């Protein structure tokens, strides 16, 4: 327990230090791992187990939310293959140049060794990218779905390599895994009966580790792949989102072990550290390759650049590829330390860049020529909100309730904005008027056609950061109407108010008031309750829309904006 206490205290302190420097906590966790190793502390046996559990639950959660059709998109599979080929070529040339300069580790290394290192460096980190997307609430955004699709394709390529290169190829029993397809039907039936709370979370962990990790590992396949497959087989269940949310905190805690464990990959030498840090020079080239390939797939400049930025890092799978290469005699053991330095440093660099990813994407996008609206991918074209008086950004439970209230009780023409295509289709079937778009997109209002009648915007997305970004973009666009937002915590309420929200609805703080309204209506009748509700309106932060429409936003988001803002 003493060792565990030391590890926890150092990790918490390093994570807090990263936060104070305005970096993600995972940067501190990486520093903690290298620091503890340098201090001479041995890696606890359970640290690797915690790391494996975290990665397994991460991939299981991805599977729960994955639409398999995403992998069949040309902009996913073509980008993955082309990026891999070009990344290997870049790495071979760069590492060959370092050998010529005089790094002894690279002297005499053949093309095969350089190509294998290039393959290891071509993968992006699933763990890191998903954490970035989670923080932005962007897993369902177009660039987020493309990034996850590319990551899964890369993981599959890595698994194929490991299966071929390993001394223990998959057994013939691996073909029996097809029985998991009908078996998933039984698991779905069981899932429907486990209820909510801790039993549901335990069910998810058991499925990820049992028929997922353990079964695949037993037949010679990567256990993490099994967790991903099980998640995909169970995706679409009505409780999939709830289970993913229940496992979120557990997954995040376990992944701390993953980041700390990277520092224990081997003994660090000055040459290994130097080569690992120099490998960061290849990341901008890989990011550019990704962005250019996606631009050729007719995506907007911002979408392509954001995808390139979020994927510009090295992967934990690269460490596994190098470890297998070392075990089979293809590589020197010291390369594992080099890759560990490169992976850790890429996380630090990518964290700093992606913290301001939207700003960088916008600045870079201005430097390149635009394309006509008709040239763009169908999910990237102009958004028509003709006649809308109110926009609700985020169509979860809160957003749907706001639309019903404004539409049915106030008689307003309301349009919802949602970036999840599956939810958009479901809502349209249910009678809602919804457009598919990313409300945190810096160019969102530049893509809106005929928004001059909009006088009320409600920010109802589940993540505070997403609402804050949307609010900033809304005000920056010149929108002068009323903006209301939801928040869960007192400091979030204050921050939204500082950034220009006219009203903030505290989900927890106002729950009692809403309950009192319902009770008063039941006890005293509709008319009396309405009077009470009017008296409380300002205190609750719920605003009725004003009678006069506001002027057009200054950025071309007003009536007819689509005709003049049809390029991106």
TrEMBL record:
<dbReference type="InterPro" id="IPR003148">
    <property type="entry name" value="RCK_N"/>
</dbReference>
<feature type="compositionally biased region" description="Gly residues">
    <location>
        <begin position="557"/>
        <end position="568"/>
    </location>
</feature>
<dbReference type="InterPro" id="IPR036291">
    <property type="entry name" value="NAD(P)-bd_dom_sf"/>
</dbReference>
<dbReference type="InterPro" id="IPR006153">
    <property type="entry name" value="Cation/H_exchanger_TM"/>
</dbReference>
<keyword id="KW-0813">Transport</keyword>
<keyword id="KW-0472">Membrane</keyword>
<dbReference type="Pfam" id="PF00999">
    <property type="entry name" value="Na_H_Exchanger"/>
</dbReference>
<protein>
    <submittedName>
        <fullName>Kef-type K+ transport protein</fullName>
    </submittedName>
</protein>
<feature type="transmembrane region" description="Helical">
    <location>
        <begin position="171"/>
        <end position="187"/>
    </location>
</feature>
<dbReference type="Pfam" id="PF02254">
    <property type="entry name" value="TrkA_N"/>
</dbReference>
<keyword id="KW-1133">Transmembrane helix</keyword>
<feature type="transmembrane region" description="Helical">
    <location>
        <begin position="142"/>
        <end position="165"/>
    </location>
</feature>
<feature type="transmembrane region" description="Helical">
    <location>
        <begin position="335"/>
        <end position="353"/>
    </location>
</feature>
<feature type="domain" description="RCK N-terminal">
    <location>
        <begin position="391"/>
        <end position="506"/>
    </location>
</feature>
<feature type="domain" description="Cation/H+ exchanger transmembrane">
    <location>
        <begin position="10"/>
        <end position="349"/>
    </location>
</feature>
<feature type="transmembrane region" description="Helical">
    <location>
        <begin position="111"/>
        <end position="130"/>
    </location>
</feature>
<feature type="transmembrane region" description="Helical">
    <location>
        <begin position="199"/>
        <end position="219"/>
    </location>
</feature>
<feature type="transmembrane region" description="Helical">
    <location>
        <begin position="272"/>
        <end position="296"/>
    </location>
</feature>
<feature type="transmembrane region" description="Helical">
    <location>
        <begin position="303"/>
        <end position="323"/>
    </location>
</feature>
<comment type="similarity">
    <text>Belongs to the monovalent cation:proton antiporter 2 (CPA2) transporter (TC 2.A.37) family.</text>
</comment>
<dbReference type="InterPro" id="IPR038770">
    <property type="entry name" value="Na+/solute_symporter_sf"/>
</dbReference>
<feature type="transmembrane region" description="Helical">
    <location>
        <begin position="76"/>
        <end position="105"/>
    </location>
</feature>
<feature type="region of interest" description="Disordered">
    <location>
        <begin position="543"/>
        <end position="568"/>
    </location>
</feature>
<keyword id="KW-0812">Transmembrane</keyword>
<feature type="transmembrane region" description="Helical">
    <location>
        <begin position="45"/>
        <end position="64"/>
    </location>
</feature>
